[in-house]
Amino acid sequence: MSLPTLRLPARLEGPLSAGHPWVYRDHVPSGTSVADGTWVRVEAGRTVALGLWASDGAIAVRVFRRGRADAPPQVPDAAWVEATVARALALRSGLEEAGSDAYRLVFGEGDGLPGITVDRYGRFAVLQTYASGYRRDGSDAAELLRLVVRSLARAVPLTGVLRARREGAAAETVWGATPPPELTVHELGLRFLANLFEGQKTGLFLDHREHRAYVRDLARGRRVANLFAYSGAFSVYALAGGARHALDVDVAPAALRDAARNVAANADAIGADATERHETLRADLLSDPAAALAAPQLAGSDLIVLDPPSLARRKGQRHAALRTYRRLNAAALAALPDGGLLATASCTAQVSHEAFLGVLAEAAAEAGAQAGVCAQVLHESGHAPDHPVPLAFPEGRYLKFVVVRVTRPD
Ligand SMILES: C[S@@+](CC[C@H](N)C(=O)[O-])C[C@H]1O[C@@H](n2cnc3c(N)ncnc32)[C@H](O)[C@@H]1O
To answer: Are 175 and 83 in contact (CB under 8 A)?
Structure first.
């Protein structure tokens, strides 16, 4: 089959052959005209790659396979998709045994299927795509997606696959049965309600599973303030780990209602007094973090979890995001007593791990000057195994998680 061929500058051969999965539009010959979601051949030096063309956005080609001029890659077929999905599933094979039936089955670029994510929620899966070609009926991209869904449906005990809602379009069932409005799923043996139609992300924030387990192990005897709580998953873990009390703070009332229900649903793991040890507080934490952290309900907290939403969608918003991280973390550090712990996260892809640590150092200096606190890093982490990222793809590493201990020397 002869494919449209794009010749890239030779300097792009390094990243392309190393596994970078994107070709930016700035790098394709101007005037290139290809139908959205069509296979294209990309050449840089002696490297030849195959990818799907996207008509809009900064990413012009998402690369699926690579080779050399003398051994060029083949267009992905059903067998290739099946093997790629099988490789992705192998990475998740221990999760179910560990008590989790909600996790990411396919993480796009990280699993060799750029622009496609699939999350499992028990017997249902939620599919999301990040390029318009996947929605163009009859396109190569739409055919590839059909093969991905078919491979998953064969290999995972699913009842239905839902395509997530997006701006202007409702969620739709693309295979099997439609999920009920609300499901109970499991993570490391704990129970969580998930709404695949209305919830944030695809239902739950699955990328923090290991971080929640880390917080569970720190929480014994502590009073926890879970800031940007969503449906309270960090609090459920903390209470199950023996926290004295947990307060979930979020701006979304529906999320807080689910937080209370999640705590009640885990009374067997938390204890008969589960709901008495849990409270919720609706508050805007972004407009004035220091004022929000001074709320009386937060008094005495000695473990603060801070997990704000992504604060920058574009490069131009990066500086504002760093300022907001500094203010939030400085306020949290200043609020903690001697021996207090801050478990702080960033899901902003525009902020690197190093930049996040830099901003935490600034926040600690600010809290040190104001409140005499010192801060030590106890733990740093990022992506869980169900969110793998190619080493050649730093843009894909969005999640940072750092645990800091506060001391207040005389
Ligand atoms: C990354 S999610 C938190 C996920 C949660 N930690 C979990 O493990 O499920 C961010 C949360 O911030 C909340 N949020 C967004 N803007 C906010 C604001 N200004 N004040 C308080 N919460 C806010 C959203 O409703 C969302 O629940």
So the answer is: no
Q: Is 374 marked active-site?
A: no
Select from 3.30.1490.20, 3.30.2040.10, 3.30.750.80, 3.40.50.720 the CATH code of 78-185: 3.30.750.80
Looking at the CA of residue 347, tell me the nearest atom of ligand 1.
1
Kindly give the number of the ligand 1 atom that is closest to the alpha carbon of 208.
8
Q: Is 286 in the pocket of ligand 1 (CB under 6 A)?
A: yes
pTM listed for this prediction: 0.95
pLDDT, tens only, 276-309: 999 999 999 999 999 999 999 999 999 999 999 9
Which residues does 18 contact at the CB level (< 8 Å), separation at least 6? 391, 392
The residue whose CA is least distant from atom 10 of ligand 1 is 309
> Which residue's C-alpha comes closest to atom 17 of ligand 1?
251
Which ligand 1 atom lies nearest to the CA of residue 287? 19
Helical segments of 191-309, H only: 209-218, 233-240, 253-265, 267-270, 289-293
The residue extents of the domains of the chain are: 5-68, 78-185, 205-407
- Find the catalytic residue in 347, 351, 360, 404: 347
Q: What are 28-44's pLDDT values in tens digits? A: 998 889 999 999 999 99
For domain 205-407, which architecture applies?
3-Layer(aba) Sandwich (3.40)
Domains 5-68 and 78-185 share a fold: no
Q: Select from 239, 251, 257 the residue to mutate for testing ligand 1; criterion: most ligand atoms less than 8 Å from CB.
A: 251
Topology of domain 5-68, CATH: 2.30.130
